[in-house]
Amino acid sequence: MKIIHVPCLEDNYSYLIIDEATKEAAAVDPVEPEKVLRVAQDHGVDLKLVLTTHHHWDHAGGNEKMKELVPGIKVYGGSVDNVKGCTDKVENGDKFSLSSDITVLSLHTPCHTKGHISYFVTGKDEENPAVFTGDTLFVAGCGKFFEGTAEQMHQSLCVTLSSLPKPTRVYCGHEYTVKNLQFAVTVEPDNAKIAEKLSWAQEQRQSGLPTIPSTIDEELETNPFMRASLPEVQEKVGCKSAVDAMREIRQRKDTWRG
């Protein structure tokens, strides 16, 4: 399983998931379909599926055009989210295949939108899996609570996504990592892992390279939202529960200017 970044718009990422044996591919949130198709053609792959994480235009806005350009392509999206161009609605726990070797599991990860889906993708046994988290989980951050609650984001991050295997590669929808880590330092100024990752992320961006993927393991060490269940993080933000800490950290991030 090969995963290709396709930078789109100002700071979005679309992705191609490729089965190198069969040359079949899926596109994740192909907001600029012509660009995504050019990259697919450059790699000699046949686009079969679109995986849409949520209904916002900068993720789902290319679906109708993609259906015009690739007749018969299947477009997956959350059943609750009214995704533009969706042909196949998915619920939490639904499984489908890209190819004989690549399986996709739909995980309902609501809060940013009501029907947000993260896609957990597994290939051959020896490969580390990947999860495409849209705007629910960012590297060192999470999406704004546009349509949901702190309880939902806690469930999405600290229960659903945190329970994935630690080596799972995390591919999110935007390049927000440096800002997210700069904020994370304000929550946990003594966390050496955050400082180390911030330094690395700044070097990556200065070199014009992405900071994505992360891993679930790295997020559990450096992402304040994923760490809201930890008593030491709750204490730092003056809270006594994981949900209260999630709410407080999000409120701080919403007003933080950096």
From TrEMBL:
Kindly give the PANTHER family that the UniProt entry links to this protein. Answer: BETA LACTAMASE DOMAIN, TENZING NORGAY, ISOFORM C
Instruction: Cite the Pfam families for this sequence.
Output: HAGH_C, Lactamase_B
Alphabetically sorted, this entry's keywords are:
Hydrolase, Metal-binding, Zinc
Pathway it belongs to? Secondary metabolite metabolism; methylglyoxal degradation; (R)-lactate from methylglyoxal: step 2/2
* Cofactors required: Zn(2+); Fe(3+); Fe(2+)
Keyword Hydrolase carried by entry: yes
Task: Identify the NCBIfam families for this entry.
Answer: GSH_gloB
User: What is this protein called in UniProt?
Assistant: hydroxyacylglutathione hydrolase
Q: Name one GO molecular function term.
A: hydroxyacylglutathione hydrolase activity
Ranges of residues in domain Metallo-beta-lactamase: 11-174
Q: Which CDD domains match?
A: hydroxyacylglutathione_hydrolase_MBL-fold (cd07723)
* Enzyme Commission number(s): 3.1.2.6
